[in-house]
Queue: 2 jobs
Job 1
Amino acid sequence: MKKTFAIASCVVLTLALASCGATTQEPLSPQQVEQLSQKRPNLHIQTSEEAKQIALQNNRVDEAAAVATDKDLSVAVRVSNFNRLRLQSIRKDVHGKLRNAYPKHEIHVTTDSKIFAELKKLESSLKKSPPPKRETLKKD
């Protein structure tokens, strides 16, 4: 009798907890979808190039890739050989110089090779075909 009561109470408790956690999210309205799709960041190629030059001023940095928007500045640096033992100090040094040069931007500095490759690819695609200006975008 006690075993069946314990099993039944565990089942009821499990079902009650499972039903409390199930929530559904309402679908977005067409206006909300349109607003989200129109938000495109303004990319600043000149700022990106200047940030790359600042990062390359560090003797331990071999290559740099950067992409800048209105508020964010992402810089990836490639470091090789024994300099890889000092990754944290290299990131800190480059971050400090960039923060002094661009105080209004949120600065992101990384030494991750995969992120470096992605930023390099994005940078080269932006050089080939720069993004359209906000004024020239057509609204459908």
Job 2
Amino acid sequence: MQKTVIAAAALLTMTGCGAPSTPLGPADGSAKEESAQLSPEQDARVAGTTFNAVAEIQCSGLNGRGQTVCRAGVLRRLDGSADVIISGGDNQRTLKFDADGRATSSDASLAPPSSRRDQNGWITIDVGAERYSFPIEFLKGD
């Protein structure tokens, strides 16, 4: 059974996007090996993609525009971590999350991300002047 997230449930708010850069890594320069993506038997993939879920989401700031619609996809990994890839116009953003749903890095060349979860199950991530917000279900699945 294919898992999908409806647009209303996967609202993502984004402001002030900067130019993409290399994702953040450990301070000592060593690269942490990423966990493999869940197999299609463990978590269905959206047809024609490598994503475990996709959504049409609202965003602002991408390509210097006000609020608009962007696509987002999530890659869920064996260790419980996940990557969220957001696309809008000519730009793309990648946010990496640990198994607890905390943002650990971004491809934006800004300050390291900070994240918090509200009582309604929404995650809000701040990266410099950028802000992203979406439900934990998009990240973790049902």
